[in-house]
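Bug #2210: token dump truncated for Methyltransferase domain-containing protein?
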Amino acid sequence: MTDGVTTTQEFYTRYAAVYDLIARWTPGVHGLRRAVADALALTPGDTVVEMGCGTGANFAYLRDRVGSEGTVVGVDFTPGVLAVARDRIRKKEWENVHVVRGDATRPPVAAADAVVATFVSGMLSDPAAAVRTWAELVGSGGRLALADLGRTTRTPLGPLNWVFRALVRASSPPGTGDQLQVPPTVLLDQRLVASHRELEAVCEDVRRETRALGFARVSGGRVQRTTDEDNRQSFY
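Reproduced locally. Full output below:
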């Protein structure tokens, strides 16, 4: 009997090519990916880690901003999507873009200037804890950015939430909602709110943006200096 992690990996591996097409060609997705890359405020030479990189649809946007002297590292736990990402890197001849198989909640990297996660918060059981982990990874002054999907709160567009609900169910691994106490879209909303609130708690100069008729939220900011760091700086 396979566990939930194995089922999820098998699902996204099986449909990696289809997922890649959706990730790159859904109307409005290019603008959303540009927005989350802009929210990182990257500079040439930076090292940016993308948690849950999938097939690498964000790589071009991130690489454009760190330049040839910077580094892009993609982390994902699903072999099938990483195979597509590696093939993209090879075809583009991106020598400064790399992928590694790993868990976004326990990043297999030691340090970075920035961390980005796109459409990942809704897949994590404790997204706020993951955001704190990523903040520790980049340290004070490092950058965090999130882009996530949830139901729109724009009243005239409320009926479209039924369509969104159907899409969420269709794109979820088998059995995902069987044991849930709340509908998948409600859980998705809860995790979106938790992750973006945590980003606002650990960051300053936070930039917020709503796109795609209110279904997409983008947040980005700079990790704040901690009280201990302020005290050490004052002492010295």
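Output looks complete on our side. The domain at 1-223 is CATH 3.40.50.150 (Rossmann fold). Marking as cannot-reproduce; reopen if the truncation happens again.
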